[in-house]
């Protein structure tokens, strides 16, 4: 409700449907998970109202940077999911880098500067939703472990800022 994005249960349904479609037609499908870095500090320093304003501003930024075919959801807290049909891993990494840069250079309410970490994966042929989710979560964890404010594919691709 707060962000105006798809919720977790709606996203689950879209993800299952898109993964099934990918299995049927063997078309590229990528998943991006992003997490705002040190979001707890925003809530602790400025209060939850400011944290909410940051989330709303981020949701608007995400909507402006995605295609109509993409699905964007608030996954929980400060985590968001982006499902990109007809998008290869390389294209999804470019999209994640574009969004990462936009977030970093946006002046958010009260807080000012914010960064985010990204996990990016492409769905493998006949891969289960559970496996895709585990891989994207692991890729995000790696981005955080390598210093935050970066995009990670879990080591499958190694661009300049890649973890």
Offer a quick outline of the entry.
47% of the residues lie in helices and 18% in strands.
Folded structure, characterized:
With 163 residues, this protein is α+β, with helices and mostly antiparallel strands. The protein has a single domain, classed as Alpha-Beta Plaits, CATH 3.30.70.270. The protein has five helices and five strands. A five-stranded mixed sheet has the order 2-3-1-4-5, sandwiched between helices. The chain starts with 7 loop residues before the first helix and ends in an 11-residue tail after the last strand. The C terminus is likely disordered. Pfam families: GGDEF (PF00990). It is an enzyme of class 2 (transferase). This is diguanylate cyclase. Its EC number is 2.7.7.65. It catalyses: 2 GTP = 3',3'-c-di-GMP + 2 diphosphate.
Tell me the total number of β-strands: 5
- Determine the CATH topology: Alpha-Beta Plaits
Helix tally equals: 5
Q: Indicate the CATH class.
A: Alpha Beta
Radius of gyration: 15 Å
- The CATH architecture name reads 2-Layer Sandwich
Structural class, from helix and strand content? alpha+beta
In the residues, how many domains can be counted? Answer: 1
The largest sheet has its strands arranged as: 2-3-1-4-5
Outline, from the CA principal axes? globular
Q: Looking at this structure, what is the CATH superfamily? A: Reverse transcriptase/Diguanylate cyclase domain
Span of the ends, CA to CA: 33 Å
Mean pLDDT level: 93
The low-confidence runs, each spanning 5 or more residues with pLDDT under 50, are 158-163
Characterize the main sheet: 5 strands, mixed
Helix content range of the residues, please? 40-55%
EC number: 2.7.7.65
Enzyme class: transferase
Catalytic activity: 2 GTP = 3',3'-c-di-GMP + 2 diphosphate
Protein name: diguanylate cyclase
